[in-house]
Amino acid sequence: SPNLDAAQYKRKDVSDQQIMTRTSVPRAILETYHSCDAPPALNEMNPYRDDGKISLKFYTDPDYFFRFWCK
User: Fold this and answer.
1) Which of 36, 57, 54 is nearest to 45 (CA)?
2) Does the structure show a pLDDT above 90 at 50?
3) E-assigned strands of the chain?
4) Cα end-to-end distance, the chain, whole Å
C-alpha cells in the first residue's frame, strides 16, 4: 500500500469543517476534558533514548489514527 501522509491526502467530498468547536462542545464532554490529568513529562526522558524516538509518543500519539487509516 502507498505510504501517505497528511500533505498527500485530499478529500474528494466536501464536508463542513469544525463540526464541533470549543464553543459548541457539549458540557459533559467539556467537564470530562477539564478533569483529565495532563500526560506525564516523558519528554524529559528523550535525551536518554538511544533510538531517537520521542518518549511521549509511546504514551499518547495524536497521529496514530491517521497513520492507521492510511494503511
Assistant:
1) 54
2) yes
3) none
4) 7
